[in-house]
Specification:
The chain contains seven helices and no strands. The chain is an all-alpha fold and 192 residues long. Helix 3 packs antiparallel against helix 4. The relative contact order is 0.17. Pfam families: Hemerythrin. This is Hemerythrin domain-containing protein.
Length: 192
Amino acid sequence: MTDTTTPDRHAPDVVDALTQDHHEALDLLGRIGATTDAAERRDLADTVIAEVVRHSVAEEMYVYPAMSSHLSDGADTVAHDKDEHEGLERIMKDLEGVGGDDPRFDDLVTAMSDALRHHASDEEAEQFPKLRAALDEETLVGLRRKVETAKKLAPTRPHPDAPNAELFHKLAGPGVGLVDRLRDRLSGRSTG
């Protein structure tokens, strides 16, 4: 007898991967507030910064071009999201410069949490459902694979003065990522 039921769940796609990234980053930010150990707080902040930078670069390389092409309000949506990424990058750059016991540290973690929560909410409630409606499952799964590959090569540190553009990330991103990972190793910085 052949099973003719269809699975309730599609293959993990780009929306699943990016949503998971959001939740993991917000969880890491929440864990910072749960410890008073300055070194652990700094380590958690470095990890979340690296993950959010990788996520943002991969989105700008592959997801935002798809949104621009396939959503009726895609260009405006992408411009809005890039502005939010720039704001996050500036907060992360400031956060990189303070120790886990610095009084500004908690304020910057709160600012990053608030900005990321807002950005994730916009994407998950409005943009991702539109993207799923506009693209077939195979394309969405293919985008997930591209995003996963891009995250492996992406920078691990915020570069707020670098262009937030697909072409820049595709041409310069792997080189910047290599330099960042070398800096991470030399400084002993944890990046997940």
